């Protein structure tokens, strides 16, 4: 038996019992991925030791207080935007007794009690921890309120990060601001709102969202129809909306809305097409089918939209969507995987990979799991993990061998080719993606990015303009790509305006800040360069020209040299 003063980190999963009751397999997959990919590597990576694992939590010990607190914050940041997995985390310094494989004592008791006061997503630290931190770290914590805790004889002052009212603000980077939308074209235009989940459990959102996404993908293949991007239409998820207002915001004439109710092996899907000018129903239908008929329902909805809007079709027929897999369990894994991947977190990426791997095992000829896996490895590469791009390229090619006409395959191939610095292939596959899905905003933005890095900037602005019209709630990298193209062509004032838009849409993303710094260097604006350099250092203290060279896939040395010269002139 050993007793000593220790820094203790105590963490548990919020609502673990409820999550297991609603979706045991999905919860275990997400939790195991989080444990292996994020939590335990972060703990051990800064010198911590996992001393106890519980079904829904952990106790860890650190020799260094600052390491424990920084680790707790990074763990919480990794879960920002995760749909269901939330943690409470506490750090405390106290006496701990170690006996064989167990641990107990006043330090553990207090850590557990203050952890219970945390909101989902918060880190709570005791007063002793707070006063052991350097001023830079301590200043991000708020509070200092004194609590009387159960079975603790003295009151304990606690400090919190983030403050209660700012927790939701931590994921503001994922929420985009709409821009006024102009009419897209003379072609019929439509937005597909996320179908409402009418199932008994809210965890079935992934299924109703997946149905909506597949319908968007199907009608995006029609050259005679303009379709608003998922990113924009899904901003209305869970909101009571007026259809004419949605049409004005998105610049479309029609809206498709509906609902999904899944119960066992039966599914009910309702869909209705509404005219945004009159508010009248153009078409509506209810489908009560076996789950195995889900793809036929999607094809039928596409065909009914085409006929209702008199869409002009190449060849005079609606292209059949087909049945991508006969294994409904594999399809379910893919829908879950999409939802996890789109969280763009380490935990979500790991959970998505696990689900895509399950889908591929269930149906080895199903193309989408391989394309999805390729994208998870690209995301890993950005995080410095191996095998990264080599594995991603192999998986993307496996996907293409199974279904070369699947748009997601071309998306994955273009992404992988670009970061492998195979610029001609990246451009060709992005163009192929546009051919397959002429209304997919991401395809135009992907082509724009590939062309910029290839040194072909003349068409980038027009491509981004097209992407923005298709996706009025566009993400930061649309104006960022436009800004990079303006910068490459020496139009620094125009570049600054675009890059500022990128910063406003994702203030904590490094790259718009870096390119703003480049522009201020060329504009010889010392005051703005100094301020911008401080922002770059705040977001990435270790940033250097080597970071730029290693990550950004420029084809021409002259292009990367241009960026580096701008950074040097700005004082980096």
Summary of the model, kept short:
Helix content is 51%, strand content 17%.
Describe, in plain words, how this protein is organized in 3D.
This protein is 51% helix and 17% strand. With 572 residues, the protein is α/β, with parallel strands linked by helices. The protein folds into 4 domains: 2-171, Alpha-Beta Plaits; 189-316, 3-Layer(aba) Sandwich (Rossmann fold); 332-437, Serine Threonine Protein Phosphatase 5, Tetratricopeptide repeat; 470-572, Tetratricopeptide repeat domain (Serine Threonine Protein Phosphatase 5, Tetratricopeptide repeat, Alpha Horseshoe). Strands 1, 2, 3, 4, 5, 6, 7 and 8 form an 8-stranded mixed sheet that branches. Strands 9, 10, 11, 12, 13 and 14 form a 6-stranded mixed sheet that branches. Helix 2 packs antiparallel against helix 3. The radius of gyration is 26 Å and the shape is globular. It starts with a strand and ends with a helix.
Rg, Å, rounded:
26 Å
Please state the average pLDDT score.
Answer: 84
Main beta sheet strand tally, sense and closure? 8 strands, mixed
* Count of domains: 4
* Percent in strands: 15-25%
Helix fraction, binned, reads 40-55%
Uncertain runs: 164-185, 312-318
Straight-line distance between termini:
54 Å
- Assign the CATH topology of the largest domain: Alpha-Beta Plaits
State the fourth-level CATH superfamily of the largest domain: Nucleotide cyclase, GGDEF domain
Q: Describe the global form.
A: globular
- Helix/strand/pairing category: alpha/beta
Task: Please identify the top-level CATH class of the largest domain.
Answer: Alpha Beta
Total E-strand runs: 14
CATH architecture descriptor text of the largest domain: 2-Layer Sandwich
Query: Can you count the helices?
Result: 24
